[in-house]
Amino acid sequence: MQPSPEQSPHHAYPDHWEADVVLRDGGTARIRPITTDDAERLVSFYEQVSDESKYYRFFAPYPRLSAKDVHRFTHHDYVDRVGLAVTVGGEFIATVRYDRIDATGRPASAPADEAEVAFLVQDAHQGRGVASTLLEHIAAVARERGIRRFAAEVLPANTKMIKVFRDAGYTQRRSFEDGSVHLTLDLEPTAESLAVQRAREQRAEAKSVQRLLAPGSVAVIGAGRNPGGVGRTVLRNLLGAGFTGRVHAVNSALDAGRDTIDGVPAHRSLGEIAEPVDLAVVAVPADRVPEAVADCGEHGVQGLVVLSAGYAEWGAEGRDRQRELVRQARSYGMRIIGPNAFGIINNSEEVRLNASLAPERPASGRIGLFTQSGAIGIALLSGLYRRGAGLSTFISAGNRADISGNDFLQYWYDDPDTDVALLYLESLGNPRKFTRLARRTAAVKPVVVVKGARHSGSTPPGHAVPISRIPDSTVSALMRQAGVIRVDTVTEMVDAGLLLADQPLPAGGRVAILGNSESLGLLTYDVCLAEGLRPRPPIDLTTSATPQDFRDALSAALADGGCDAVIVTAIPWVGENGEAEPGDGEVLATALHTAAAAGPAKPVAVVHVEIGGLAEALSAATSTVSQQRPATQPFTAAQGAPAKPPAPAPGTDTPGEARRIGRIPAYPAAERAVRALAEAVRYAQWRRQAAVPGKVPDFLDDTIDPQGAAARIEALLGDDPDPRGRPLGHDEARELLACYGITVRPTLAAPGPEEAVAAAARLGYPVALKTTAPHLRHRADLGGVRLDLDSEAALRRAYGDLTELLGKPAELRPVVQAMAPRGVDTVVRATIDPAAGAVLSFGLAGAPSELLGDTAHRLVPATDRDAAELIRSIRAAPVLFGWRGAAPVDTAALEELLLRVSRLVDDHPEVVSIALEPVVVAPQGLSVLGASVRLSPPPARTDLGPRRLSNY
Fold first, then answer.
1. Alpha-carbon gap, residue 551 to 239, rounded angstroms
2. Which among 110, 262, 554, 804 is most buried, taking Cβ atoms within 10 Å?
3. Does residue 712 sit in helix, strand or coil?
């Protein structure tokens, strides 16, 4: 909302303070600066506040605002006097104001750095977390304007407001003066305030999703009068799933006298429904959606699933329509799934919601599935159904203009019905937040991701996302750093999801392989080696093996302390006539289930070839089997299925008689089973390590100078920095890096042979002569580097050869540098990506590593564990640890250098890129021979500011 012309001319309206937020109950609201045009809204708001709340605000009865009050509370300079309002439906529900004061408490201007702050929340909206959210935003505004402390006077009886200040996590001081509590809050964010903010964010966003997935009533807007069509299909699916709440159909063209559609109450508009509606499914043409949204907002609907197409996927006009849709819905406090969505499913028996175009509600299970594509969603539902997998929730978000995968990670984090989260993503709207949320969720349950549209320029047109410069391989590395299991295909996602949902995590990579086919066992063994597992020699049970043999072998393997997981391979039994029998898979499944249930908790997977009924029997939902029935014949098609014993009563799971067991995942190829198991092994290892997080060593604090670096950066950027950035010269870069204990070996220019000789005399022999021309830089293979020049004669000879071979000195830009101890040439880089944030990278120097993409990446700030993993995760890492008899290099010094670079970039966001190349790592110590640094005005850090929803 822009101010009127009479607003203060000295300070423009700060539209970047505007924000949509999610409140504690899952509803949304908008925070914006108060302007002179808000006088009537302010008066109306104040009239709806109780006398008690007014008393708490003004410390005296204050029934109404005077004209002077209204003028004071609506006229701000946005620096020393600032007011923010929280609005829903365009009307105020809360306000906050600060006034800058001096040490005596009188009004002041900068450089005074303290302000008095006061809040007022409408009684009907108290308890929704409004004041806590406002405090985050007004504190961010104050810090931007140079205010470092808030002072507040609160009556002792106003316990709610005191709690807001106390629970914020800021450093604070309290005293009791003149009958009121005097509070002082230091506004510098602390680890506690950030933790409080993120915990509140998680609860609020999870609640906003929960309101959509567990509504008490649903209205389908656009349910056709005749069978067919999108709206009528959703209505039919809702009823077919047995939704436990109330269902209404809405059709503006409903025939006179008709009051039902498919047996549910039908209405011409939502306003005709006499009871509250929690969720509305919108299935009308795009040009009619605004009317439907307004109808929903006026009726108090909590959330929308918009199936309608014709938005950002249709181009510029559609993008504008999509932005307006989000703005309109949020103005009423509603969140949106869609537009262009496929729908949502909640399999909880308390809800049984199928508000989607999927004709069948999938089986109930422990997997949560999110997809941005309706077509992929259909394929995944079909694949999971064929594999016997069950879902807790399913969401196909379409253009995900509002609710995204991040919101569902917040929901699944503490959802007791979901054990594994599967996500098909085509874009990341907020990659930094995704990485943070994924890391936290992965610490308690697996997160498996397929990233579609991986190549630059192929982002789906319906998705508005930041443009990232980092390659897909870097994104993959950063996901794995966060504990995300990233796979390449939706088939691999299902394969991994089935294993993770129904089997325990492996304690290591030692794999036992057993089965009735030597060849299939050897194939499995080879794939295990290729995936980095440690397989034991396959156990061949021979083709005459019975289900009892499988059961005994599996029991023995599970009981073996040297085994962490088991892969069972099975082929049909071959009869005496040489013909393969398809076999009765249910008998074998019973044997395997029984062994798995009786043994130690270790993952079991089955690779089978054309054994009828085996996959279906293995994937049966948690069931009960008898352990007393023998299984002593080979499994054949003629053998009858065992009788299923009755399930025991709850609590009667008696060992030796009957036991609860789960699904065992079955795969038609060894490669698929082993890859799924390998992902589980890597994830389990990450999770064990994540339980004891890494840290930044304390020694860095004694050897760095953040204040000195900040002063240098400020001086280098100047008062009017170029938004395109500024590359530093060699000496400037050396001085800045030295503030963080990073020593760059001096390099002296040598525009002619005499200057080269003088430089060598200054540095001391032996020296290196190098070109620094862009096309030759770091290209020793082109002859632009001459090493170990131990005399003036050798240096002059090398200089002449260099210029004769490659060109004139003015073109080559030669430099002289003292020789460093021999070692391994490496490269350390740090860059700021607009989407992913600060990224630390490491690899060996040279064309082979660049061509093969053998570079490792971690997000900044990096911990000691990140640094250690960084140098060990490249494929060429053995070169650093004594490959082929060479002396191992000083990896401890290399890890320290990585931590110093990480700390520099994290402390100073103006440092947008650093490249140290080469870094020669010797058996003792290292030498940084070249460095380039680029500065730029710091990019916005939305991940560190107050909570806000993304703008689209």
1. 44
2. 554
3. helix
